[in-house]
Amino acid sequence: MSMSSVKSPYTVPPPCNHLASYKLKNGLAGYTSLQEYLRIAPNGKPAISKPDSKAPGCSSCNGSHQRLYLCLSCNWISCIDHTLSHTRSSLGHEIAVDIERAELYCGTCRDQVYDPDFDRAVMCKYIREMMPRGRNGFEGISIISERSSKRRRLVPGLDSDFSVSKQLICSGDQRAKSCYPLGLRGLNNLGNTCFMNSVLQVLLNAPPLRNYFLNNKHNQDACRKASADRFCLLCDIDVIFSAVFSGDRSPFSPAQFLYSWWQHAANLASYEQQDAHEFFISLLDGIHEKEGKAKDLNKDGRDCQCIAHRVFSGLLRSDVTCMACGFTSTTYDPCMDISLHMDTNSSLSADSPNKANKSSGNNMGSSSSTLIGCLDLFTRPEKLGSDQKLHCQNCQEKQHSLKQLSIRRLPLVLCLHIKRFEHSLVRKASRKIDWYLQFPFSLDMGPYLSSSIVRKRFGNRIFPFEGDESEISSEFEIFAVVTHSGMLESGHYITFVRLRNMWYKCDDSWVTEVDEKTVRASQCYMVFYVQKMLYYKANEELSCIPISSQRDAFLPVVGCC
Amino acid sequence: MRGSVNRPPTPEAEDGRQDQHLSLQEIINIKLVESGEKERLKELLRERLIECGWRDEMKELCRSFVRKKGKNNVTVEDLINVITPKGRASVPDSVKAELLQHIRSFLGSAAL
């Protein structure tokens, strides 16, 4: 089981007296003999069924509209009413199994009960059944519960203390204290470059990136010597960091950076408006390319250590389940962000009360006008159409399949991209979806992890799943939102950043303090979250910047204060 | 299934079942199960009820019930009893219609 310091996703409830005495009397014999009748239903869940395909019904009343239970002592199948009377009349026949779900029930307690041994028997059968034909997504699962917990340490350098080594950084005079925190500076629009400015403001305020650049982890001199290539996006970003943290509040023009990026993304080099998300991905790609070459990384599948990957890279898991036999094939793909669809399905009838959107996305009236709703949709099993039948290794033919996505590994900084721009090839038209989307400031990604999603598939089980022992927290805090206003062709991007729980609006050259309400009411396009621990650490660091009197850093200028 | 010394004597109901005149509903149910159609319909129903938010509403009803009673004072049976009437009443008509349509076409193709 998990180490005491790790938060376990489940606790083992103590058995009721009846389960305990059943175990004393029968041990595991009842469970093992039950394995013969365990099968995998088309939805992938374990169930119990008799060898003949006769419709299961209550042996006493033939009813089949209620849940049916199989008595573990005498194999009698009964509906709930007759299960209860059976328990009363036959001594020792308290424990039964819900045949549709393969879950334990106690007739005297009249409630579901849990036994890790039972769940292990169910899961063993499942694994044994599926394992010979493939891993079935159970890599690393050992039936014996001994498992080394793989500690994923935070990458060194990204979480190091904010040791301010650069001499340029100073806090200036008294006026500065009443002004904005360090790291806020307007960026001039160089010709429809708000898409670039908005993303740059995010990077300037992403705690791991701020630490990286302000700790001089990308040394421009060393970089220039090491590579003959004149253009280095990281050097240019380093220049921007220095400029923004210099204390000079006059709007800065990131011209050198823009020029560098044009070299990398030649097809996008123009003064036309670009898509901020596309730019973001292109920028990360550019950073990876350059650093990948410089560090001569081996290509044997090891995780890339370029700064872009270290900060933004996560791992997505995709499970495709055959609907005929339940066999599941799993693949993993790295991702730098998650693009979410907004649901077009309508919710229930109008007479259902529309409760106010609190933190839960489980709200009927507006199932997908929340970010949580979009995440639910993202991880919901999707039935693939008849034209997308996939070859099942087990059945050896093409079958209807179910596909489900989940997150195997979360990044340090999570970028959630809302798909607001629809491009229809059929209609040869594009449109923007303007719906409001509510998003939380604190986000727990736990329910979307592969361990949670996979665990849910097997019913209510006391069983350790791969990934359960992860020590990485799934709790995130928001630190930036890129919003888009206006129409598809002629819109405008602005970024809201959060520093020490205060919100600031970065609109090209203008940086102003804003209310939390303004941020919540905005139309989000890309929402950026950082692991909670890093967020709070960064906040602490912001409050203890050493004061230096090297120059009068604060100039009253347009755009700030 | 394995024999067991604890097994009570076979009651008459089992034998009686074969002789009983089965209602149309029971016959349809047996046909649906034996052909596997019932399971497919259940999956379709599950999908539709998730899509329209019905399952989330039931979850919320359960949660508020557990909050009210205290989590150690609630059994699965209590929950089933509480949400069944509300659940049945709030299934959207479109979902009912779709399933009926499937059953009708199944009956049309199955030899009864």
From TrEMBL, chain A:
What Pfam family is a match for this entry? UCH
**Matching InterPro entries, A to Z?**
Papain-like_cys_pep_sf (IPR038765), Peptidase_C19_UCH (IPR001394), Ub_carboxyl-term_hydrolase (IPR050185), USP (IPR028889), USP_CS (IPR018200), Znf_RING/FYVE/PHD (IPR013083), Znf_UBP (IPR001607)
Keyword Protease annotated: yes
The UniProt entry's GO CC annotations, sorted and at most eight, read:
nucleus; SAGA-type complex
Sequence ranges assigned to domain UBP-type in this UniProt record:
14-131
Per UniProt, subcellular location reads as:
Nucleus
EC code:
3.4.19.12
Q: Which UniProt keywords apply?
A: Hydrolase, Metal-binding, Nucleus, Protease, Thiol protease, Ubl conjugation pathway, Zinc, Zinc-finger
By sequence similarity, the record places it as follows: Belongs to the peptidase C19 family.
Q: Which PANTHER family match?
A: UBIQUITIN C-TERMINAL HYDROLASE 22, UBIQUITIN CARBOXYL-TERMINAL HYDROLASE
Name assigned to this protein: ubiquitinyl hydrolase 1
From TrEMBL, chain B:
Residues crossing the lipid bilayer are none
Provide an example Pfam family for this protein: EnY2
Q: Which Gene Ontology BP annotations are present?
A: chromatin organization; mRNA export from nucleus; protein transport; transcription elongation by RNA polymerase II
| Source species, domain of life | Eukaryota
Q: Is Transcription among this UniProt entry's keywords?
A: yes
Q: Which InterPro entries match?
A: TF_ENY2, TF_EnY2_sf
Just give the chief location class.
nucleus
Coiled-coil annotated residue ranges, if any:
none
For the keyword Nucleus, the answer is yes
Region annotation Disordered: where it falls in the sequence:
1-20
Q: Which GO terms describe its cellular component?
A: DUBm complex; nuclear pore; nucleoplasm; SAGA complex; transcription export complex 2
Q: What does this protein do?
A: Involved in mRNA export coupled transcription activation by association with both the TREX-2 and the SAGA complexes. The transcription regulatory histone acetylation (HAT) complex SAGA is a multiprotein complex that activates transcription by remodeling chromatin and mediating histone acetylation and deubiquitination. Within the SAGA complex, participates to a subcomplex that specifically deubiquitinates histones. The SAGA complex is recruited to specific gene promoters by activators, where it is required for transcription.
What assembly does the database describe for this protein? Component of the nuclear pore complex (NPC)-associated TREX-2 complex (transcription and export complex 2). Component of the SAGA transcription coactivator-HAT complex. Within the SAGA complex, participates to a subcomplex of SAGA called the DUB module (deubiquitination module).
Similarity comment: family membership: Belongs to the ENY2 family.
**What name has this protein been given in UniProt?**
Transcription and mRNA export factor ENY2
